[in-house]
């Protein structure tokens, strides 16, 4: 089994190198004429005002939280799905109960307006 | 051993292995060398196809959809357009803005490409022709996609640009939201095939999973489109939106790498959809002649890629709050219901001895009708509420209110 | 030194160095990214232990969800993202000595436990079979069904709690927008 992962371990660095090669080629071949205007941050043509930070929009964080919860739920369900052919009906129903409990959570989030993009 | 035409890819591997062992190298080193060579060929072939051929295909087909010619000057039929674009991007000046975090800024495009190239390790092209037959192939796909999401944050933050950061946050919010229905719906092929390995899923498709689970295929397709950032979900890179989003400050080949990663990713979801729902390399005669299997796979993948492009040139863009509502209020509940219903019904069908395909088709048909009915009821209730709230005014724009943007 | 040992040492070194960099980096976002590398190293170690499911779960959950959550949290706060001042104070030599002694004591105590000190035996089953067994175990009445369902209730509680805590902030923002 491990020799399958050797392929993965070989492909990922090769992907990195294949991405880096054109970039390095570009840095060798392309002109380099930096001046202040080119290097300044792009803000639709006007001067930047203030530091680079973004308004704290709690909605982003809520989405990330809900994502974590449902991601973990899906991961719990994968072994259940892999063993599906060997399960009996009541075992399948137990998995369905798991999903239902979390669907209830989604419904709660929906009703409380946590899913709105404010 | 002779070259077995019925198993060409397996015999090529065996020939190479025995050749290297006869040269006196130890077995583990031989597998490593073969893995590196195979990975190099895979990455090279797919990246070149994506970077050159697919870009040409995209522009030509897009042009035909829009009743124009598309690139036709560079090379026969404009085939070398992709190479010309690559050369142009290489020769553009590579500007790193002041205050940008150099290391993170440079690594972000590399990670974006690496995550898409890594996806091809688990795609079965033909019987015996697969990079790595991991028994957790489906989750591996999700995992590597997550690395792509990380590269977006890295790009947006390291650019030292408010708009890049804002664009990156919106993009990541969209990407992680659409990952949920995708991961949930991937449970359905896993259940039907009894394994997470891609080869097992292809082998389990005596009947294509598209026929056994059309709703699941639909949800997977739509969420994959959003994961890639294609229309109708491409507001993360549209010019009228937040000015190219997280890759504003990138120029030259680094920007080129982001673009290549995106094109490549859309091709990859065509391949993944083929493997998961269209039977991969299966087709008449593909068991006896694996070359036919490769042909079927490539044909199906390009067909799905054509569908992706067709959708791009047909639908208008969706607003971000509409996208989030679509995901959390439509796709996720639908995915949950599909998983639950498929699980229960398949078990019942097996135990009662009903024929599998018609039962699943009936189930999915029922789900579609139920969903449409619910959506109709919801739309009716919404319309009634809006009409109840409306105060007739002179000069009022009927219908759509201006939605809350961000 | 077999190939496996070499790969293990390399992965372990990568994980260890990134973990140290997480603690030491003055920039918070850098610390977050070093954390991602640490988690990836741990995933690699899971692969070496022939637990591919845990490896991909590590990447999906930790890197794909939790690291992103942490980076969101870092980016969305208004505080200074950079640690001012020096990273080491004057007592660092004594702290190093105490840490090494603590480490040695812990290793010694752990090695006293016979089952941990013995060379580990590989499990005599294919990982795909093990995965199906895990699935069966999660819903088997004699084994892990109760923790399985309690886990879902725990996730539900976390979801409800997070939304309950965040609601005043969302309402406050909505009021801000309408003004």
Question: Would you mind describing this structure in some detail?
Answer:
Chain A has helices spanning about 1-30, 35-40, 60-80, 90-110. By secondary structure, chain A is mainly alpha-helical. In chain A, helix 3 runs antiparallel to helix 4 (about 90-110). The longest helix of chain A is centred in the N-terminal third of the chain and has 28 residues, at about 1-30. Chain B has two domains: about 10-90, no CATH class; about 95-380, no CATH class. Chain B is globular. Chain B has about 400 residues and is mainly α. Chain B starts with 7 loop residues before the first helix and ends in a 17-residue tail after the last helix. Chain B has helices spanning about 10-20, 25-65, 80-90, 100-120, 135-160, 160-185, 185-195, 200-205, 210, 215-230, 250-275, 290-310, 320-350, 355-390; strands spanning about 125, 130. Chain B is built from 14 helices and two strands. Helices cover about 80% and strands about 0% of the residues of chain C. Chain C contains seven helices and no strands. At the A-B interface, helix 1, helix 3 and helix 4 of A face helix 2, helix 3, helix 4, helix 5 and helix 6 of B.
Classified in CATH, the superfamily of the largest domain in chain C is NADH-ubiquinone/plastoquinone oxidoreductase chain 6, subunit NuoJ
> For the terminal residues of chain C, how far apart are their CA atoms?
69 Å
Helices of chain C, by number, come to 7
Largest interface summary: A-B, 74 and 90 residues
* Domain tally of chain C: 2
Order of helices and strands of chain C: HHHHHHH
Question: Domains counted in the coordinates of chain B: how many?
Answer: 2
Strand arrangement across the biggest beta sheet of chain B: 1-2
Helix count from the secondary structure assignment of chain B:
14
**Which outline of chain B best applies?**
globular
DSSP, total strands of chain C: 0
Rg over C-alpha atoms of chain B, rounded to the nearest angstrom: 24 Å
**Major sheet of chain C: size, sense and barrel closure?**
none
Largest sheet of chain B: 2 strands, antiparallel
Structural class estimated from helices and strands of chain C:
mainly alpha
- What quaternary form is this? heterotrimer
């Amino acid at each position: 089994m491990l020799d399958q992962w050797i392929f993965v371990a070989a492909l990922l660095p090769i992907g990195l190198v294949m991405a880096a090669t054109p970039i390095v080629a570009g840095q060798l071949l392309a002109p380099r004429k930096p001046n202040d205007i080119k290097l300044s941050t792009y803000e639709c043509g006007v001067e930047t005002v203030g530091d680079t930070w973004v308004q704290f929009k709690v909605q982003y964080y809520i989405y990330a939280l809900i994502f974590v919860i449902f991601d973990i739920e899906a991961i719990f369900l994968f072994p259940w799905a892999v063993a599906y052919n060997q399960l009996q009906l009541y075992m399948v129903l137990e998995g369905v109960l798991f999903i239902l409990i979390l669907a209830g959570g989604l419904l709660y989030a929906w009703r409380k307006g946590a899913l709105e993009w404010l | 051993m002779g070259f077995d035409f019925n198993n060409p890819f397996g015999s090529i591997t065996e020939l190479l292995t025995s050749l290297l062992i006869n040269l006196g190298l130890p077995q583990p080193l031989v597998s490593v060398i073969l893995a590196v060579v195979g990975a190099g060929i895979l990455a090279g072939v797919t990246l070149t196809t994506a970077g050159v051929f697919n870009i040409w295909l995209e522009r030509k087909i897009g042009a035909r959809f829009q009743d124009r010619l598309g690139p036709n000057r560079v090379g026969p039929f404009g085939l070398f357009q992709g190479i010309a674009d690559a050369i142009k991007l290489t020769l553009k000046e590579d500007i790193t803005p002041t205050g940008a975090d150099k290391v993170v800024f440079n690594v972000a495009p590399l990670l974006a490409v690496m995550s898409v190239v890594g996806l091809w390790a688990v795609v079965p092209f033909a019987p015996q022709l697969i990079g790595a037959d991991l028994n957790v192939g489906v989750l591996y796909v999700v995992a590597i996609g997550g690395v792509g999401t990380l590269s977006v944050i890295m790009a947006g933050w390291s650019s030292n640009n408010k708009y890049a950061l804002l664009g990156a946050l919106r993009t990541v919010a969209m990407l992680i939201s659409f990952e949920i229905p995708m991961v949930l719906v991937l449970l359905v092929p896993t259940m039907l095939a009894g394994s997470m390995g891609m080869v097992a899923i292809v082998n389990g498709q005596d009947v294509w999973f598209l026929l056994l689970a059309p709703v699941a295929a639909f949800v997977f397709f739509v969420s994959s489109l959003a994961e890639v950032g294609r229309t109708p979900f491409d507001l993360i890179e549209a010019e009228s939106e937040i000015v190219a989003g997280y890759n504003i400050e990138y120029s030259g080949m680094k920007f080129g790498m982001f673009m290549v990663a995106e094109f490549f990713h859309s091709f990859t979801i065509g391949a993944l959809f083929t493997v998961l729902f269209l039977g991969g390399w299966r087709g008449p005669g593909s068991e006896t002649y694996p070359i036919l299997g490769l042909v079927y796979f490539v044909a199906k993948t390009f067909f799905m890629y054509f569908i992706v492009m067709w959708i791009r040139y047909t639908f208008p863009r969706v607003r971000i709050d509409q996208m989030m509502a679509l995901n959390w209020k439509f796709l996720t509940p639908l995915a949950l219901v599909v998983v639950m219903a498929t699980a229960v019904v398949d078990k019942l069908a097996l135990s009662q001895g009903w024929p599998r395909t018609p039962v699943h088709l009936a189930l999915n048909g029922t789900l579609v009708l139920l969903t449409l009915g619910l959506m109709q009821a919801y739309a009716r209730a919404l319309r009634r509420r809006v009409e109840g709230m409306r105060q007739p005014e002179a000069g009022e724009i009927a219908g759509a209110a201006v939605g809350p943007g961000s | 030194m077999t190939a496996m040992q070499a790969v293990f040492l390399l992965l372990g070194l990568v994980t260890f160095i990134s973990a140290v960099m997480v603690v030491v980096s003055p920039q918070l976002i850098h610390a977050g990214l070093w954390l991602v590398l640490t988690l990836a190293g741990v995933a690699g170690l899971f692969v070496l232990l022939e637990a591919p499911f845990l490896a991909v779960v590590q990447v999906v959950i930790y890197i794909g969800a939790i690291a992103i959550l942490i980076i969101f949290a870092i980016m969305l706060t208004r505080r200074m993202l950079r640690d001012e001042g020096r990273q080491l104070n004057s007592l660092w030599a004594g702290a190093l000595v105490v840490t090494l002694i603590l480490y040695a004591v812990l290793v010694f105590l752990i090695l006293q436990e016979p089952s941990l000190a013995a060379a580990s035996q590989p499990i005599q089953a294919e990982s795909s079979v093990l995965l199906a067994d895990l699935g069966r175990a999660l819903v088997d009445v004699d084994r892990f069904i109760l923790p399985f369902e309690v886990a879902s209730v725990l996730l539900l509680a976390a979801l409800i709690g997070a939304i309950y805590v965040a609601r005043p902030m969302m309402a406050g923002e909505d009021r801000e927008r309408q003004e």
